[in-house]
Amino acid sequence: MNKLSVRDLDVKGKRILIRTDFNVPLDKKGEIIDIIRITSSIPTIKNVIDRGGRAILISHLGRAKGEVIEGLRMNKVAEKLEVALGKKIKKLNDCIGTSVEMSVAGMKDGDVILLENVRFYNEEEDNDPEFAQKLAKLCDYYVNDAFSVSHRAHASVVGVTKFVSKAAAGLLMEKEIKYLGQAVQNPKRPFLVILGGSKVSDKIEIFKHLLHKVDTFLIGGGMAYTFLKSQGILTGDSLVEKDKLDVANEILENVKKNHSKIILPVDHIIADEFSKTANSRVQDEKSIPDGWRGMDIGPKTIELFKKEIEKANTILWNGPVGVYELPQFKNGTIALAKLLAESKATTIIGGGDSAAAIHDSNVEDKITHISTGGGASLEFLEGKSLPGIEALSDIEGRKIFIAGNWKMNTLQKDARILINGIKEKTDGFKNIDIAFIPPYTHLFLMQDILKDSNIKFGAQNMYFEEKGAYTGEISPLMLKDLGCTYVIIGHSERRKYFNENDELLNKKIKSALKHGLFPIYCVGETQEERDKNLHQKVVEKQLINGLTGITSDEIKKITIAYEPVWAIGTGKNATPEQAEEMHKFIRNRISVIYDEEISSNVRIQYGGSVTSENVADILKQENIDGALVGGASLKIDTFSDLLKIANNL
Q1: Is 212 a catalytic residue?
Q2: Of 193, 215, 330, 422, whose CB neighbour count within 10 A is largest?
Q3: Catalytic residue from among 60, 268, 491, 583
């Protein structure tokens, strides 16, 4: 997924507007029948509040169509949500306006507010920009955790994203994209797709989009009879889309040409009418006599489907294979649910009655992923872009990052000239991330001069404790209070002159991350270690020890800086090939510690006598994502030229 995740947001102290799907089923008395949509939202809400964020929840309920309907207020949802979350929440009687803004302004870290039904306003479904802007006014960041409505371009789904700095996917949304995307893009074979439901017309686009990826299709439900009829098989009074017979034939031909196969029912449960009181029996062959209609797959078909399920490594199921709303004709669908639960394959359920069958069979915990999507799942599987997903912020990927490490250089007057000079020359550079890392004495200057700049700043070191009797040390809280974004940890000069070891550096990294700072973790070997061919072992040890206990979410916030000690301040420089070799090695080691996807998103800088003359050749290497620059960052023209070259790359 190339979209920003809630995991990527620094939520501490921030107001996070979370679009959830609390459109729960209600009985005639207005009581909630099923809370699965509420419980599905809990991981995202907890992710925000456990990290010190302030969660503002917004959802629709029922078909209010712009009217305030008492029976569709979110009060009952609030009661169930409190139980599921194990925490008191505040439910408001509106979703926009002065009173709402005042309640949100009074929130504390970890608080949860539930807004009123957003569809009490017509502006929601109209995607009215003024209404969307009022919603955005409530938050610092937006999170969409409602995959099920993401095929709708509504104000709380799409419009609001135009008025916030960051719009991220929630954990449920992330899971939906991961598993449905895996089925569409890179399924582990054999790939089996089970399609049911009443109409071929509802699934034509799925056939077209998945045709070249699927090994076997199993077809059931009402749509099976259109396929059977297209082959000249008698279907009695079964549901047949006569205008889709040619389409069904075309699908069968295309599946054949693709060397895939499509399996249709070989027997049926048939009935003399469509009702709960109908006479029914097993029809032990493909054809169905006049006066009878197919209502479910028969026992032979279940056995035939079972053999295919046992062979599959990925299974996608969308739609019931019988008339699920009539109890006597749900057996085939229930049987499939149980077969999928027993399967060793990755099993993905496309929502609707398929999901209901999983629930009714009590096998939810044995299914890899059950989509909450309904119509959104269908459109996703058809290869359509969902507006709610498209509107989310893209992950920037490994954007080039140049940091100037000033070390123990410059006085206040020099620093002011340097900051302003480089700032003026690099104003408008948007293709790279830039940071100044000055002595502690200049951090106030940085905070003042760079407040409206694209340039960030950080510190050269910090202690891991928040406060205490540590004379001469600076805490992460102090750095954050000054507006620091980054902190260098483990620079070779700290290791050499101050005897900092990997255990201490690991504590510093963890503390920096805890307090919202982004570490630049330095690794590298000495000349002696390289001469003895120990350079990779040395760097590997520094990585493993320094990253001990760092989670897969946290590693994405760390920049690794490879600095061969023999090239720091010596005028020597690793060749681009030498640097790339070590950067590739580091990325491979990170993929072993975590995984390849995470490794591909971690930024790795090169440091060691980087200048405007050699920076282009260094940055052109595949695995080098920037530079930690020493001496060259202390000269306005030199560093500005270096940054310009990087920005143009």
Answers
A1: no
A2: 193
A3: 491
